[in-house]
Request: fold
Amino acid sequence: MKKSLTVFILLAVVYLTGCSEEKVKPPVKSINLSEAPSQESWNSTITFTDSGKIQAIVTTGHIRIFTTGAYTLLDSSVQVDFHDEKEVKTTTLTSKWAKVDDRTKDIYAFRDVKVVNDSGMVLETEMLMWRNSDGKIVSDKFVKIDTKEEQIEGYGFESDQALRNYKIFKVTLVTVSTKLD
Reply:
């Protein structure tokens, strides 16, 4: 009898605790819509033009447009093809991700940034900006430039977008190739 009374009390306790009105709810993460992108796109291409002429063509795996901050994030394998005044591709920039200022149309490229021009010159850095207003490529970070004739390293950089006229502000290394005939 004692055993069945103990079982009855145990079952009653289990039953009564299971009938409570309070239910466990999973935590809900609040979303601030002002911080969310207004548009998203995958495997996209953006074309920058001036007076109907192509200046640059941007290709990326993922785009997020934030209208409240007036910027666009390109966060998956970015490639930018720069064109001259005759709309001929002169330079290609690649990076892990980039940010476009939607007001100025300046492009900021980040992580493993590499710029290659049509003559084979290669610029490598971790961050640079393409300034839309004058078509200049600039960086205040460490840069490395490789050409057929030389290798230059230093800090701070400015160039036209074709990488033809460039300067490094604080040169740390210059190596010149010499051909033996």
